[in-house]
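ASSEMBLY PREDICTION REQUEST
Request ID: AP-0331
Submitted by: J.K., bench scientist
Number of chains: two
Total residues: 534
Priority: normal
Notes: Please return the full assembly, not individual chains.
Input sequences:
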Amino acid sequence: MNVQVKQKIAFSILFFCTLLVIIPVLVILVIIFAKGISAIDISFLTEMPTNGMTAGGIFPAILGTLYLVLGAILFAVPLGVLSAIYLVEYSRENILSRIVKLAIVNLAGVPSVVYGLFGLGIFVLFLGFGASILSGSLTLGIMILPVIITASREALESVPKSFRIVSLSLGASKWQTIRHSVLPHALPGILTGTILGLGRAAGETAPILFTVAAFYLPKLPTSLFDQTMALPYHLYVISTQVPGIPENVRYGTALVLLLLVLLLNLAAIILRYQFRKRKKW
Amino acid sequence: MVETPTIKISIRNFSIHFGDTTALKGLNLDIHRNEIFTIIGPANSGKSSLLQSLNRLNDLNPVYKKTGTILIDNQDIDTIDVESLRTRVSIVFALPFPLPLSIFDNIAYGPRMHGIKNKSKLTEIVEKGLREAYLWDEVKDRLDSPAMNLSGGQQQRLCIARILAVEPEIIMFDEPTSGLDPISTARVEETLRILKERYTIILVTNNVAQAARVGDRTAFLLMGELIELNETKRLFTMAQDKRTDDYLTGKFG
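STATUS: Completed
Returned structure:
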């Protein structure tokens, strides 16, 4: 067998493997879209559920998920980015920093239900926030923290060392160097981490199960200390806990969750693209 | 010598270690104000390590250790805060490292970090720096274009302009022309001769002929030791040490 034929075979295998990755995504999208699109109209998106959630809209769940994702991001991004800056720029390579890095990697592998129990123990009971948007956001925030720290660290480490040396050699302080010569170039990578975290925070059910999510609420939340409905939990409830929900409402809810995550991701991707365009090396 | 030169930098019994490796052994030398002091020697002779000790860039290396003192204007560099030391003692690296910014922003970077925000003041500093580095005529119409798009020689002069913008006293060149063609090299050397009027210049070079062309005094380092130091002309015409003579005539290194 000559080199060209081998190359063609290798290329074909790689190509089909890549194609296989797309198939499940497409199938899921097509099924959910086909079965759920008939449920979606303006009133489904903007109205409260009625008749024991068998009719009406899912507005409170959409709003609740938005609140939770926003809360988680507001909490996790500053904390995660600052920790990453500390780890990459300030801490010296020693046993402690290695343990911290190992802990972060392992935190990423903790099952989400464990985060839920942790949130219940710390925020709901010990700190007395109760089952509330605050508790839920903090729990989701801690869950996505490792993703954001890891992505931010990689982004910071990928900024060429010469940028730092040049900046320092011009008499800039260490913080000025980080602020003006490192962070701007690490932003696209940090945003990628944020996108990944965002999708996870929006979709997880277990962490909000014990900390915030309500089965059904007749009113919208008015403060950080209120419970709220949320899309993933609502989907779980109407799929398994309440009989007689029309199929298109269940798939419609799943479709809304999917579109919401895609929309949030899209916003972050556009932002990242804007930053990348300014990159000049 | 008609006048006694003023001593700008005084290096006393200075040694550098990186972990278990010794990069420089008990160096003693003085560098005069407004001279071009060239340092020659083969690879690993401690030339670059010395430069990076002068503006304390070596402090970034966790395994760096030093003994002895370096005085600038009779002040120990360890007692000067590191930001103002690095402003006074600038370095041009072997490879030009433009920041991924426009030409203007590259040169304005240093002044901005030192608190200058006024746009017209910055414009003035940028133009002055570019003129002094002989780059102004080539880039004056495209100050907003990325510095990365310039040629190698232009980038190196941009780095010189960037340093002039922070108004240093001493400029160190670490093999500044090793990646440049002969014409760009000649331009940089010409710049050095003019800069010497107002700055103290230390030039580390692998190129012996370059030392002969531009140096006022030349030091020969070998394996971290100062072998010989003399006025460039004397060093090149009558080296006292056989190793210097061998190096200059290309028998090793």
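REVIEWER COMMENTS: Chain B has ten helices and ten strands.
SIGN-OFF: pending second reviewer
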